[in-house]
């Protein structure tokens, strides 16, 4: 007998699709202008990867990849595929790992900039903003870890 899909999963699937689309748009909007300006200014695509903007580009590409994976998992969840629950769990684990790794990688740049700016200058608290952004971006993956571990979802996922 096939278990009925828990009602919470329709909301999770819809929320996943919306958050994925927002994540893709935001990261494209932040990354593309900086990358294009750097390429136009230097004329060298390879040199881009050796700059803080290159790190920013890699970070945006990672977020876009994760958002795309979340979008696919949301579509699978709404179409009734039980394996979509595992995709959401994988997304949550990957998002937490990538957020931790990228925060650790970008922290030196934020600390360096903060150290050289005066206290009242914009960007002086860049390291604090990085931590806030990371904490906010981890809210949904943490929610998914709990939501996908409920009894109803585990029985549906079997």
Structure description:
Residues 112-117 have low confidence and may be disordered. The protein has one domain. The termini are close together. With 158 residues, the chain is mainly α. It is built from seven helices and no strands. It has helices at 7-42, 45-48, 52-78, 83-116, 126-137, 139-147, 151-157. Helix 1 (7-42) packs antiparallel against helix 3 (52-78), helix 4 packs antiparallel against helix 5 (126-137) and helix 4 runs antiparallel to helix 6 (139-147). The longest helix has 36 residues, at 7-42.
The figure for the number of domains is: 1
H/I helix tally: 7
Measure the end-to-end span: 11 Å
The rounded Rg comes to 19 Å
Arithmetic mean of pLDDT = 77
Low-confidence stretches: 112-117
SSE ordering = HHHHHHH
What is the molecular shape?
elongated
Number of strands: 0
Biggest β-sheet, characterized? none
| Helix fraction by DSSP (H/I, runs of at least 4) | over 70%
Kindly name the structural category: mainly alpha
Percentage of residues in DSSP E strands: under 5%
């Amino acid at each position: 007998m096939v278990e009925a899909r828990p009602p919470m999963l329709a909301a999770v699937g819809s929320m996943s699709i919306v958050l994925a689309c927002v994540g893709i748009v935001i990261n494209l909007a932040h990354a593309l202008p900086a990358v294009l300006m750097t390429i136009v200014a230097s004329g060298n695509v390879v040199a881009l990867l050796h700059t803080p903007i290159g790190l920013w580009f890699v970070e945006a590409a990672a977020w876009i990849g994760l958002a795309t994976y979340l979008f696919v998992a949301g579509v699978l969840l709404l179409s009734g595929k039980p394996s979509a629950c595992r995709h959401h769990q994988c997304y949550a684990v990957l998002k937490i790992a990538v957020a931790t790794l990228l925060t650790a990688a970008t922290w030196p740049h934020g600390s360096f900039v903060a150290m050289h700016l005066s206290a009242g200058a914009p960007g002086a608290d860049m390291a604090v903003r990085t931590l806030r952004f990371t904490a906010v971006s981890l809210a949904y993956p943490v929610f998914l870890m709990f939501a996908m571990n409920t009894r109803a979802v585990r029985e549906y996922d079997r």
